[in-house]
Design brief:
The protein has 9 helices and 7 strands. The chain is an alpha/beta fold. The strands form 3 sheets. The protein has a 3-stranded parallel sheet.
Amino acid sequence: MVGRMQAVVDTGFWGICCRLNVERHLTKVWANPIRIPGAVIAEIFAAPALAKATTDSESSMLFPDQQKFLEAFLAETVQPDNADHNHITGFDRGERDVIDLAWTLAASSGNPMTVLINERRAHEFANQQPGLIAISVPEFLVYLHDRGILSITETADTFNRLAALGRTPKLFMNAAAADIRARGGSV
């Protein structure tokens, strides 16, 4: 494959990136479009917004991650896709479908696939599969700094906001924190 690797994104990864306002950078690191299984789309839209978000004096009944998904879909930076067969068991539906889709795409193309997943067990499992590379949200922030998309100050600030959410496994947070500190960031 010439150029950047392709990626498949999980619900938790998408939601956290939307909260941190870094989802727009996904296609700066991975090939456009980012693949997203139907089960993940269903999880994103499973709950209607309980509070109205106001934009330009109009009320929206979508959560920010739902609205950002619709915008990315219309901009063709995310693409719904599903594996033909389910090979993976032992995880929730979205995680299974993300790993299955990435595995299927890697096997059919002969190129590695990135699995954007923030849950520890599924992340570790994906990393053990041939042709798959799992990336957590903290690792994504480090990637953004590596590629000059975020300054070290922006990386550290975003990491600190991620830490405040408390939704990322400590193992991922500790590794990224050490990396950011080694680059001069204050986390």
